[in-house]
Write a structure and sequence with these properties.
single chain; 278 residues; alpha/beta; Tetrahydrodipicolinate-N-succinyltransferase, Chain A, domain 1; UDP N-Acetylglucosamine Acyltransferase, domain 1; 2 domains; six-stranded parallel β-sheet
Length: 278
């Protein structure tokens, strides 16, 4: 166990037993919280990691994020000439240019404690929350939201108006994961710990959540909570179990996700765009 993990775990125990709260936290506690946020932004610690073939939450990291809400008090802050109120400041983005990343103005918000890698593009207005990890070479397009603790891989394209949900509580639950080289079309929604496998292409306005089945035509199985790697996915509607109800003239239908083969193990960015638009 690292020194930082030990300090966060001990602080969490004190917080749970009411030994420390927002009114009694002092310099030592805030030094631990600041070191933790810096480690998140540097990518040294992550809210979830892949272990073998599956993703698992780092519970102590999620507790560290919760401590930053529980032990800090809301303060008035300034952004773009407007006063807002929050427990955390925004991330210091002055070093983004050094590592080749861009964040455009007019509404782009990266909260302190979010990791943005090298050669990334964050278009306005977009929001990246604390604990989120955005891998190298990834595009976060206009009107996108990357929720708390969401894990976004390298060379990912998040189409405009895409929502990547966050899972902060319960701490043992893994957050949404978008693996490397994924392309999500405009208007997609990925929520509740769903995992999108690497090199997949998802059509626009697709909802990916554990409550909606994924019909994987490649392996001939129905999955929940995951889209396998190297798939092309899109929304279709299947007959509902209440299809014969009198209120549903012509039948009732429910959404489903259909996953097919990409016909190639890897696709260049331009090829992914062609598949998405075809």
């Amino acid at each position: 166990m690292s020194t930082l993990e030990t300090e966060i775990s001990e602080l969490w125990e004190r917080y749970q037993t009411d030994d420390v709260d927002a009114g009694s936290a002092g310099e030592d506690e805030f030094a631990t919280l600041e070191a933790f946020l810096e480690a998140l932004e540097a990518g040294e610690v992550r809210a979830a990691e892949k272990r073998g073939d599956s993703w698992g939450a780092n519970e102590w990291v999620k507790r560290g994020i919760l401590l930053n809400f529980g032990l800090r008090e809301t303060e008035p802050r300034e952004y773009g000439g407007v006063t807002y109120n929050d427990v955390l400041p925004l991330a210091d983005t002055s070093e983004y240019g050094v590592r080749g990343s861009r964040n455009t103005p007019d509404g782009t918000v990266v909260r302190k404690g979010a990791r943005v890698g090298s050669d990334c593009i964050i278009m306005s207005p977009a929001f990246v929350n604390i604990g989120a990890y955005v891998g190298d070479g990834t595009l976060v397009d206009s009107c996108d939201t990357v929720g708390s603790c969401a894990q976004i891989g390298e060379n990912v394209k998040l189409g405009a108006n895409t929502l990547i949900g966050g899972v902060l509580e319960p701490v043992e639950n893994a957050p949404v994961v978008i693996e490397d080289d994924v392309s999500l079309g405009a208007g997609c929604r990925v929520t509740s710990g769903f995992v999108v496998g690497e090199s997949s292409v998802v059509g626009e306005n697709t909802l990916l959540t554990p409550r909606i089945p994924v019909y994987d035509l490649v392996e001939g199985e129905v999955l929940y909570g995951e889209l396998p790697a190297e798939r092309r996915a899109f929304t279709r509607f299947v007959e509902s179990s209440i299809g014969d109800h009198d209120l549903f003239d012509g039948g009732a239908y429910k959404p489903a996700v259909v996953a097919t083969d990409l016909e190639a193990k890897t696709l260049e960015a331009t090829e992914r765009e062609e598949v998405l638009r075809s």
